[in-house]
Design goal:
8 helices, four-stranded mixed β-sheet, about 30% helix, alpha/beta, single chain, 2 domains
């Protein structure tokens, strides 16, 4: 038998060993987690907002994501706003926009050694406004991402289409938007929009319609161009862009301005659900009606028609004679956004209202101080609306 003295000694040794093991384990655990924080990064979604200004609409909320270097360092995070009446922030870093103004959000991160590192971001709260006044209510985004711009030539049949493709530099698969210029325009009319979209995570392609302009770099003569040859061009472009390896084939948007808006609308009818969303600047749905009124007798239409700086062929007028636009659009069931200037002297407001009634899901935004062809200020606001529309889909 073990003596009482030896038994007590054994118990004491086991207790001592247990305590020491626990202490050693805790020391080891602490040692692995006491890494000093070297840097703090703030993000909202995929956008880095550290020491930058992020714009947020009144009533909206976003969450700040805090990351540190090294990643394994333990940390506690506190958030503080300089103006809770403008932008409140919760203990978990959720910002809620209260009223128009700017607030500074301070972020303090502490490591296990109780040493702290602080950084900040600013929130600019944008007030809500009606559609008619939305041109005064832009919603800028954080610092744009770098992009690449390259020529992209598409061939189909005997046609060669010239365009430029705007792509985010970071490798990945992205949604895409195809831009269609108006009468006697070119793809470069959309440099501002294409650049903006690519900076915000979209592949944008703007091209010249065959024979669509005196400045066109695509093949074809203006006397061979019609609304329907342009629709064929667009469908060929759509099929090409859809096959690109870095394009999400289920998220391709169409955009068109003026005559390009009419063409995009007709193409969307044919492509149907392949088009994720349709966006139009002052679409010229009136063209067939106006041309039928100008040339009521087909037999008297000349072979060449000089019109607004471009020579058109007889077929341009004949192909749309008595063509009723609103009998050929409206079956496209996905969302449509129309941006229109109240001072438009080319396309009457009634055509926009008719389009809104014709499409199942259509939003019409009217800019009170814009006309047919937006000013630089109008484009600045319109491109934001387009991006919001695409993001919402």
């Amino acid at each position: 038998m073990i003596s009482k003295k030896r038994f007590l000694s054994a118990v004491a040794f086991i207790a001592f060993f247990s305590v020491m093991s626990t202490l050693m384990l805790n020391v080891s655990s602490d040692a692995s987690n006491t890494g000093k924080i070297k840097s703090v990064t703030l993000k909202i979604g995929n956008k880095t907002v550290t020491k930058k200004t992020y714009s947020l609409k009144k009533g909206k909320s976003v969450a700040i994501k805090v990351s540190v270097t090294p990643q394994k360092a333990n940390k506690s995070v506190t958030f503080k706003t300089s103006n809770k009446k403008t932008a409140a922030v919760s203990k978990k870093g959720v910002i809620t926009a209260k009223k128009a103004g700017t607030a500074k959000i301070s972020v303090v991160v502490k490591d296990n050694n109780k040493k702290s590192m602080s950084t900040w971001m600013k929130v600019k709260v944008m007030g809500n406004s009606s559609a008619a006044n939305s041109s005064n209510d832009p919603e800028p985004t954080p610092t744009p991402d770098p992009i690449t711009v390259k020529e992209h030539i598409i061939e189909y049949g005997s046609n060669k289409i010239y365009g430029k493709i705007y792509t985010p530099q970071k490798e990945g698969v992205y949604p895409a938007v195809i831009m269609c210029h108006g009468y006697n325009g070119v793809g470069d009319d959309f440099v501002t929009e294409c650049t903006y979209f690519a900076q915000n995570g979209y592949i944008a392609y703007a091209f010249d319609f065959c024979g669509g302009s005196g400045r066109s770099k695509s093949s074809g003569k203006s006397t061979d161009m019609t609304i329907f040859t342009e629709k064929e061009d667009l469908i060929a472009v759509f099929k090409n862009i859809k096959e690109l390896s870095n394009v999400d084939s289920e998220k391709i948007f169409l955009h068109g301005g003026s005559q390009g808006g009419l063409v995009a609308a007709l193409a969307a009818e044919e492509l149907a659900d392949e088009v994720k969303g349709l966006m139009l600047y002052f679409p010229a749905f009136n063209i067939p009606y106006d041309w039928t009124a100008m040339h009521p007798d087909i037999n008297k239409i000349p072979e060449v028609i000089p019109w607004w700086g471009l020579d058109l062929g007889k077929e341009f007028a004949v192909s749309i004679h008595n063509y009723k636009t609103f009998e050929h659009i409206g079956s496209y069931s996905k969302n449509v956004l129309i941006l229109y200037g109240a001072n438009d002297a080319i396309v009457q407001r009634s055509y926009m209202d008719k389009a809104k009634e014709t499409y199942k899901n259509c939003e019409l935004i009217v800019y009170s101080n814009e006309g047919h062809g937006f000013t630089p200020a109008g484009v600045k606001n319109a491109k934001v609306e387009l991006l919001k529309f695409m993001n919402a889909q």
